[in-house]
Amino acid sequence: MKNFHRAAERLHLSQPSLSRHIAALEKEVGALLVERKSRHLALTPAGECFYTEARTLLESLKRAQILARETAQGKSGMLRIGFTMYSVHSVIPRYVQLLRSSFPLIALELEEIVSDELPDKVIAGEIDVAVILACAPRVGMLTATALTEPLCVALSRNHSKARSRTIKITDLKDDPFVMTSSNAGSKLNTEIMNFCCRHGFEPKISLQVRLQQTMLSLVNNANYVALVPDSMRQIKMDGIAFKPLIDAPLVSLEIAWSANNSNPCLDSFIQLFRSHNKD
């Protein structure tokens, strides 16, 4: 704008008032910003510099206002999700994709954590959401079922039953079982024990390990057998065969979060989760 009259009209000011505002700004800045040439005006080099920086600041302020508003509304920010290997091929990819498409400004921090530690980390606020096998209730922790699926058998491809289309649990009564530890109150081990007992035997639990990866490695290299959620059949390991289990019991993967977590992004995730799990 190189005309005082037009500039004043745009700002809804009189020309004398505009001149006073410019003079006051120059005094505050400590530099001549505008060259006055009769009824026309032009920016000095100092004025050009001030204009560029001021415009950048105003744009940053506008962006800060938008981001603050979106953060308060749960549309922007950070969501920390903890999980175990059991959910890598089912719940995690599904909801990561939904979050990316529905809330692209929410940054996700995904951390694979030992199942024993997930409930404590949720309650302590170290993560916002955990994807866990159904476990005993914890004070201050809320849960919702994300997926219910049958168990299947993981065994070495050298096992005598590796070529079978399906397996009966009694086929494994003489085999050594490996399980994950149940310190976190997971119902999985109890379900496996009860299932075997209903079929007339108590499983030979030779080892309990903390990590699912360790469990599968023992199945692969040490001829142990394991019962795992059916979605783990998607894992491709050369030495392991995953086989359907006849009359397999069902297990549930749940999402868990703290009732005291005030992260707006968590609210957005829970709303998204519920909208896709109405049944």
UniProtKB/TrEMBL annotation:
UniProt-recorded Gene Ontology molecular function terms: DNA binding; DNA-binding transcription factor activity
Residue ranges of every copy of the HTH lysR-type domain listed in the record: 1-44
Domain of life: Bacteria
Keywords: DNA-binding, Plasmid, Transcription, Transcription regulation
Listed GO CC annotations: protein-DNA complex
Classification via InterPro entries: LysR_HTH_N, LysR_subst-bd, WH-like_DNA-bd_sf, WH_DNA-bd_sf
Similarity-based family: Belongs to the LysR transcriptional regulatory family.
Protein's recorded name: Hca operon transcriptional activator HcaR
Source organism per UniProt: Klebsiella variicola
